[in-house]
Automatic annotation (TrEMBL):
Its cofactor is pyridoxal 5'-phosphate. This is Type III PLP-dependent enzyme. Keywords: Pyridoxal phosphate. Residues 28-372 form the Orn/DAP/Arg decarboxylase 2 C-terminal domain. Belongs to the Orn/Lys/Arg decarboxylase class-II family. Coiled coil: none annotated. InterPro entries: Ala_racemase/Decarboxylase_C, De-COase2_C, De-COase2_CS, De-COase2_N, Orn/DAP/Arg_de-COase, Orn_de-COase, PLP-binding_barrel. Residues 32-279 form the Orn/DAP/Arg decarboxylase 2 N-terminal domain.
Amino acid sequence: MGELPAAVRAALVEAQAQSSDPLVAFVYDLDALRRHVAALMADLPPGVELYYAIKANSEAPILAALAPLVHGFEISSGGEIDRLAACPQRKPFIFSGPGKLDSDLRTALSAGVEAIHLESLGEIQRLQRLARSLGRLQPVYIRINPQLPAGLTSTLAMAGTATPFGFDEADLHAAVAAVEAASHLQLQGFHVHALSHQHSVERHLQLLDFYLERWPHWRGLARRPESLVRLNVGGGIGVDYREGRRFDWARLCAHLRARLAAQAQPPLIRFEPGRFLAAFCGYYAMEVLDTKTSHGQHFLVCRGGTHQFRLPVAQGHDHPVLHLPREARATATGGKAWTVVGQLCTPKDILSRGQPLGEVRVGDLLVLPLAGAYGYNISHADFLCHPRPRQLFLDGHGSAPT
């Protein structure tokens, strides 16, 4: 996973020196986040937008850093609308996901939501009633759960199988008809988010090609097909936590550019990734509290644990670990293979196994990279009532703890 960036290292050394207790902290490199996302935006073909799914990490400094770069945000709850309301730069936002509350929909309508993704006939009826009560003509997309071609799989399927998400293609005609019959809903296009944790650019290219092949049929279900111009292809681009290989975004964009240019009436495409934008900027640092051996296995017991960084357990992997000694000394790898654990009273509190970290001492820091998305915000932070970890946001010349 490479070396720890100098700015992150300096922030951790300073935070550890200032901490009266052993340190546990998240560090987010906002400058690195901006560079990464700016490069992704630069690769986008004409007619393609990039929204950020804030469920990946909705901390205020993350949103503020991304707002000037991305085309908009994707949210899935009323609470996430509140997060956007606090962002210093207002950007368009879309509302997706199952189980939307009437209160959430009402808040979104009042906040001028750009589009709402519809998941069921019941949701169409509820949104029509709410939009009519507010006198608002609301743009909407219908979410499709298509039957996927053989071989188009990933570690987390969101479509192509029985899920609570969207309409089966067999039911799509009825969904289109229901929206067209609703006086205060305006159908603009479709939303398909089929696969998550996708590491293979080849499979993702096949998936996009499949969507574009189906597009003429989908829009042809409408009374006025020419009014349907947008296709949201979701996110789902994965992060390789084991080997560190980056998804070839530039190749994906180049393929999409050629594919759209060759299509007679291509849709306007929208991506809404979260993990692929935010993961690389974050680091979770744990101070070593104890070293021990049990039944021939070597353990590093650290401040923090999976209640603060649930990602390795959620993803089912051994997370990469970087070793930051408290005092300067040789840190050659080899020797013992360490299992990194936290403070919880459960044998499931394991962040990584078999790490060849060499000599590790109490007081050293272990730093887990790729912690910027689906780390702290999906964790059960109140379990055992441990204090919350510090969060440091590196922005230019300094850090801003929260």
